Amino acid sequence: MHREAGTPPASIALAAQQVRFSARLKSLDGRHPLVKRASRKPPRARHTRNPISTRRVKPTFQSRLQRTDELLPKCHRPTLLPRQYSDTEASPLQTANKAETAGDFLEWLGTAAADTLIVYSDGSQLPNGAVGFGFAVHRDKQTLVQGSGRLGPSEVFDAEATGALEGLRAALRLSDTTSEVVVCTDNLAVASCLRGNPADSSQDKFTKFQELATSHGNVQVRWIPGHTNIPGNEEADGLAKAGCLQPEPPEAMPSLAHLRRLARQESRDAFKAWWSTEAPESYKTLNLEATTSCPPELALPRATLHSLLAARSRHGDFADYHERFNHDDARLDCSCGRRKAPEHPFYCRKVPPRLRMRLTPSPAEAIHHAVGKGFKAFVEMTSESSFFQRICPRH
């Protein structure tokens, strides 16, 4: 039931909420009352009147809030900042699809002033979790400065923000700092945070970027679509991938976005681990995975879903099931003369040959796949043949 509904048991669901609340605590301002209550206080020394006796340390009680806060490692806490409002409405970052936006940018690039500094930044993440950033500063279609680096436990979002900041710093360190600087990133969310209200993850990167942009006075942020053959963006993407291969900074703290992903991943992993040990025998051969998202089977009509779940659980209109519970008035045989069974639709002679499934590489494997991950084939065969309505009805 838990697997078919996409709902983990109550114990796992409560543990998942506790981990998510731990991530929520990490996103609070350091002056928040809950932060003060969650921080562990050093143990107090207990003094006695006897000068000869040794000083005893009184153990401190760890509250549930403190235990919840320690479920995830520490990270840089964001600061509660007032929202920014502008008197003038900023131009939208995206006004067309990716292909048209890329064409418009290349057209603008051909007409841009020769002294304009264009900063391309990007972030990347390897399958092993390594995250890196890269940037390239161009002027008149020539690369002036480029760089890359590796971050600690973080996400691509944080790498994009770091790449934009480091790219702007590199551009402002050039001799001619009065030129217009255009920072181009292919992450729409990062571009929005660079122009407006900073996100709570990598907040210090966004605020520092805005400070540098304000002090320079002529910095623009543009969104460009990724992987659309824009030379500067492709260069930054390669630098970001190279940054992932660098050694991880020592004692690097995880980002808030990384902790949030860990909280979500822990609940999914706990549900899968529970399912691997608690799955019923009839389900173990189906190789179905437990997921906290909505299972695709729930999109089926109710009658079709009933037939599929009955075939999986072996609890339904089957001869063995009726005999087990002494259903004397139940119909035990199909209209073809064979006993009703979960595997019977694959062998019934009344199913049209054009709808029958090929039971390869072996009948057991083919049936388990059709009832499990490949349930669409089972649904198509039984629906088009009206198997449970005409060939093998309940009554």
Automatic annotation (TrEMBL):
It catalyses: Endonucleolytic cleavage to 5'-phosphomonoester. It comes from the Eukaryota. Residues 113-245 form the RNase H type-1 domain. The keyword Hydrolase applies. Gene3D superfamilies: Ribonuclease H-like superfamily/Ribonuclease H (3.30.420.10). Keywords: Endonuclease, Exonuclease, Hydrolase, Metal-binding, Nuclease. One of its GO terms (biological process) is DNA replication, removal of RNA primer. Its EC number is 3.1.26.4. Signal peptide: none annotated. Pfam families: RNase_H (PF00075). One of its GO terms (molecular function) is metal ion binding. It is an enzyme of class 3 (hydrolase). Belongs to the RNase H family. PANTHER family: RIBONUCLEASE H1. This is ribonuclease H.
